Amino acid sequence: MNHALLRVLKPEQVEVEICRADEFDQRRGLSSELDEMWSFVRRKTNPRWLWHAINHHSGQVVAYVFGRRKDEVFLKLKALLEPFGITRYYTDGWGAYERHLDPEQHRVGKDQTQKIESKHITLRTQIKRLVRRTICFSKTEQMHDIVIGLFINRYEFGRLL
């Protein structure tokens, strides 16, 4: 290894700004990762999608909705997000995002959606009816939404209902 190519930063060369996440979001604007996660009710030909948004910095779920993979379902999620004043959205580029988010606020790419993809793994591990190959499944959309919604409310929001 050629040590002449190594560079060492000195503390005076590094600028660090320490602040709480909520202060950071207030100054810079809240940024959010959005994604949709597939599951099914009764049979795989009856898909049900969990659309959710998380805080890009903290990873906390901000809002979620259930439905098909259609624009009108995304618009319900978008309406839930409006009070947060989100200034930057990170997505995987699904068409609904392209059609309904301001291009100046929207960034497409898997490099900025790692936290929400990790959330999917956690959900699929904890809730067996979200596993793609399973004998555990919901028989009704209502029960599907209740089970997943209760899990999210309990473990993300700390609420029992």
Task: Describe the structure using short key phrases.
single chain, 161 residues, alpha/beta, Nucleotidyltransferase, domain 5, five-stranded mixed sheet, 5 helices, disordered N terminus
Q: Could you explain the architecture of this structure?
A:
InterPro entries: Transposase_27, Transposase_27_IS1. This is Transposase IS1. With 161 residues, the chain is α/β, with parallel strands linked by helices. The chain has a single domain, classed as Nucleotidyltransferase, domain 5 (2-Layer Sandwich). Helix content is 34%, strand content 25%. It contains 5 helices and 5 strands, in the order αβββαβαβαα. The chain has helices spanning 21-28, 71-81, 95-100, 114-126, 141-156; strands at residues 30-41, 43-55, 61-67, 86-91, 106-108. Strands 3-2-1-4-5 form a 5-stranded mixed sheet, with helices on both faces. The longest helix is centred in the C-terminal third of the chain and has 16 residues, at 141-156. The chain is globular and about 40 Å long. The model is unreliable at 1-9 (pLDDT under 50).
